[in-house]
Design a protein that fits this description.
- This protein has 3 domains: 80 residues; 102 residues, DNA polymerase, domain 1 (Orthogonal Bundle), CATH 1.10.150.130; 173 residues, Intergrase catalytic core (hpI Integrase, Chain A), CATH 1.10.443.10.
- Helix 1 runs antiparallel to helix 2, helix 6 crosses helix 7 and helix 10 crosses helix 13.
- About 1% of the residues have low confidence.
- The chain starts with a helix and ends in a 5-residue tail after the last helix.
- By secondary structure, the protein is mostly helical.
- The protein has 17 helices and 3 strands.
- 56% of the residues lie in helices and 3% in strands.
């Protein structure tokens, strides 16, 4: 029996939050989690719950009812953390998901295996697939017979309570499932995925933002490569800038994808579903090598980028973006990880690449995504439009 369970719980919460910060969670997320965990601690005090009864499904359910917390993500995260640290001996067990018909479950399995995403991401996808299945059942529509009109009608009904951002996310999830029905499953005869689109958002029509040459130089020169974290983030930064990779593409790179002898990187999973080989610049190879030799934890996991705190798990895409953005801010610059991708596209354009070549190099699904990069900085506009020599 553990004495002073509340003091023990508070200490464990502090250690958990420190671990979150060290693995790349944003400060806003850590702040939100601390608020929930403080509320959870107060709940334990008021209910006079002993240590052995704190981390049980019953306590979590009662906490959710008392605080109207939808899922208690911070408590669940703490529970998993303490289990991994062998502080508690039973892992959290979520209620079983409602099982959908085979095509839906096959897609979730396929998505998990190809994208290596977390169960949280799969649950989000399930949130739109379940209502979609229910809609088709109610309207007596066979999955093999769906048309774009059916999908539009479902989305019009399903989207009613959601914000534009949530609608965009759910539409993306449904589009992926519809694409899966066409290929590889061949359940439907026509690829309806490109037609699952919404009204163009104003923010998306704005020109992409990017860094100037002196800002890129400042960013790379700002690195102090004396820490494991900086060696890792430096390699990420090179991949984002020199290859224009998305955070999710960086997070999915494995050791087997890198050919040091050929100076090539193979991307097996891209948005356009076409595996791609990209040349690795020498400085990028050096950055990756320095990280592997000097900072990457010893692990049987083949993913390139791992957390630096045990257990050494692959870094999710969101954390990759946060790490890169943090580096940008530390260099005194304003921008995000995607600005580096935009800068890469601008460099291709200035080097004389066609819009179709940019589409392939960027891994875009359609040419419309690439066309936005025709909005270029003022020097390039003057040179192209006014034929000025600069």
């Amino acid at each position: 029996m553990i004495e002073n369970p509340i003091q023990t719980l508070k200490r464990d919460i502090d250690q958990y939050l420190q671990w979150m910060i060290s693995t790349g969670y944003s400060f806003s997320t850590c702040g939100t989690y601390r608020t929930e965990l403080n509320t959870f601690t107060l709940f334990i005090v008021r209910r006079q719950i002993g240590w052995n009864d704190i981390f049980t499904p019953h306590t979590l359910e009662e906490f959710q009812k008392a605080t109207q917390a939808a899922t208690g993500p911070a408590v669940r995260g703490l529970w998993q953390y303490l289990f991994n640290q062998k502080r508690i001996h039973h892992q959290i067990v979520d209620r079983p998901h409602r099982r959908l018909p085979d095509p839906y479950e096959d897609y979730l399995l396929y998505y998990h295996q190809t994208r290596k995403v977390s169960s949280i991401k799969l649950n989000r996808i399930r949130r739109v697939l379940c209502p979609f299945h229910d809609y088709l059942e109610r309207e007596n529509i066979k999955l093999a017979s769906i048309r774009i009109e059916h999908i539009d009608a479902f989305l019009a009904e399903f989207f009613a309570p959601f914000s534009p951002l949530s609608r965009h996310t759910y539409r993306t999830h449904l589009r992926g499932f519809v694409k899966f029905l066409y290929y590889p499953r061949r359940i439907i005869r026509k690829n309806l995925a490109p037609m699952v689109v919404g009204a163009r958002q104003f923010a998306q029509s704005k020109p992409p933002k990017f860094f100037r040459t002196h800002e890129i130089q400042r960013l790379f020169e700002s690195f102090d490569l004396s820490s494991f974290k900086n060696l890792r983030n430096y390699a990420m930064l090179h991949l984002a800038y020199h290859l224009g990779l998305r955070p999710d593409e960086i997070s999915l790179i494995t050791l087997d994808d890198i050919s040091f002898t050929q100076s090539e990187l193979t991307l097996t999973t891209r948005k356009n579903d076409r595996p791609t080989k990209l040349p690795l610049p020498e400085n990028t190879i050096k950055a990756i090598t320095a990280y592997i030799i000097g900072a990457r934890p010893k692990s049987s996991d083949r993913r390139l980028f791992l957390n630096l705190v045990a257990p050494y798990r692959p870094i999710p895409a969101q954390s990759v973006g946060q790490h890169i953005t943090e580096c940008i801010r530390k260099a005194g610059l304003s921008g995000t990880a995607y600005w580096l991708r935009h800068t890469y596209a601008q460099n291709l354009l200035e080097a004389g690449s066609s819009i179709y070549e940019i589409k392939e190099m960027m891994g875009h699904t359609n040419i419309n995504s690439s066309e936005k990069y025709l909005h270029v900085h003022i020097n390039l506009m003057r040179r192209v439009i006014f034929d000025e020599k600069l």
